[in-house]
Amino acid sequence: MSTSATPSVLFVCVHNAGRSQMAAAFLTRLGGTRVQVRSAGSAPADTVNPAVVEALAEVGIDISAEIPKVLTIEAVRCSDVVITMGCGDACPYFPGKRYLDWRLEDPAGQGVAAVRPIRDEIERRVRGLLAELDIEPAA
Q1: Whole-angstrom Cα distance, residue 11 to residue 85?
Q2: pLDDT digits (tens, 9 = 90+) for 36-60
Q3: What pTM did the predictor assign?
Q4: What is the DSSP pairing of strand 98-101 with strand 81-84?
Q5: Which of 87, 115, 126, 129 is catalytic?
Q6: Rounded mean pLDDT, 113-135
Q7: Residues 9, 10, 12, 13: which is the catalytic one?
């Protein structure tokens, strides 16, 4: 971890339009100001997947204004924990960082019914991550 009292987490997937956006949204909601949250993609899409926006809206999270962001070396360098979701070798490696790979189905091209179980699994994993970081989830 960094010397900062606030851990920093980066979620990375290929398009930054689905999985990483959902994970960042859940961590932002549940971690609040006790964690810094970033997300990015190795080949960002133009927009966030509309089915992902809808699935998160169903649980009270609005990401309709989010825009996919490109993965930068600086984003990795500034993060304590880097969680990849299918970006493979595109994510740069820095010693001293904690890397996790969450294997999750890609919501690309799927409807909201198919996105819901992915959303729920991501929330479960984010809650587990908060427990590992010793951060009590917000209500």
Answers
A1: 8
A2: 999 999 899 999 999 999 999 999 9
A3: 0.92
A4: parallel
A5: 87
A6: 97
A7: 13
